[in-house]
Specification:
Layout lengths: L6 E6 L3 H4 L1 H4 L1 H4 L10 H9 L4 E3 L4 E3 L5 E7 L2 E7 L7 H4 L2 H22 L5 E7 L7 H5 L12 E5 L5 E9 L3 E6 L5 E8 L9 E8 L4 H16 L9
Antiparallel strand pairs: 1-5, 2-3, 3-4, 4-5, 6-11, 7-8, 8-9, 9-10, 10-11
Length: about 240
């Protein structure tokens, strides 16, 4: 990764011909990109289909924001690479540049997990974000401090501050975020990390994205309500509106 053009990569245990449809089929894209909200279909269309250049034979896709996907076969796996454009020089746009970079880092982990563990089956997602008290973090709020220092492949078991007994494997450790599997959610994938400092967040913030599989409506509703109530009660939370 260079300062001018970050490169984000993930290795997926599938052939490029299997991964490519996950970049071109809107129904498959929503199973790894973003989270459940009313505008997701429009977001997917704008990012992946409006004013893009694709070369299916070469497995490359240039998005309208100048981010470029490329797939590279390596010994039966696929290296998914996103090459980011340089900063534009527009302060308003550049203020969110790091958010986009971290967002792509997050979503590639959900792409990898979704393909390898679930064949891009349907999922349910919970997204939490917001300010935290000075010096606090999503990991600490979740009660996952014991994960500090763990590396990819390490197993863990912990009772989270949400009241859930979480056990699984560390899937990704980056500079600003971590992703772990959660066995009892399908298995699911839990990503948590820091939000970059910008004009709207002078002290930064925290972000949590949870994907669950194979839960029925009642199980999901109970989990979602419990996690949202916990998040709203955290130190540093903004008043509910």
């Amino acid at each position: 990764m260079t300062e001018s053009q970050p490169v984000i990569e993930v290795s997926v245990a599938a052939a490029p011909s299997v991964v490519w449809p996950a970049l071109r089929d809107p129904e498959l894209i929503r199973r790894w990109h973003g989270w459940d909200y009313a505008g997701l279909a429009d977001e997917i269309r704008e990012i992946y289909f409006d004013d893009v250049k694709e070369d299916a034979a070469a497995f490359t896709l240039a998005l309208n924001g100048a981010d470029k996907f490329s797939l590279h076969e390596h010994e039966g796996t696929t290296l998914v690479r996103i090459t980011r454009p340089p900063r534009s020089g527009d302060p308003a746009a550049d203020d969110w540049y790091d958010d986009v970079t971290e967002g792509w880092t997050t979503f590639l982990q959900f792409l990898k997990f979704g393909i390898e563990r679930h064949g891009l089956d349907e999922r349910r997602t919970l997204f939490l974000e917001g300010p935290v008290a000075e010096g606090d973090s999503a990991r600490h709020l979740l009660g996952l401090d014991k994960l500090e220092g763990m590396t990819v492949g390490d197993h863990f078991t912990v009772v989270a501050e949400t009241g859930d007994l979480l056990h699984g494997v560390v899937c990704f450790v980056g500079e600003h975020q971590t992703a772990v599997s959660v066995d009892d959610l399908g298995p699911g994938l839990l990503q948590f990390g820091e939000q970059p400092v910008n004009a709207a967040r002078p002290n930064g913030g925290a972000q949590i994205l949870l994907a669950a599989y194979d839960l029925d409506d009642e199980e999901w509703a109970e989990l979602e309500e419990r996690w949202r109530e916990w998040w709203q009660a955290r130190p540093g939370a903004e008043p509910a509106t």
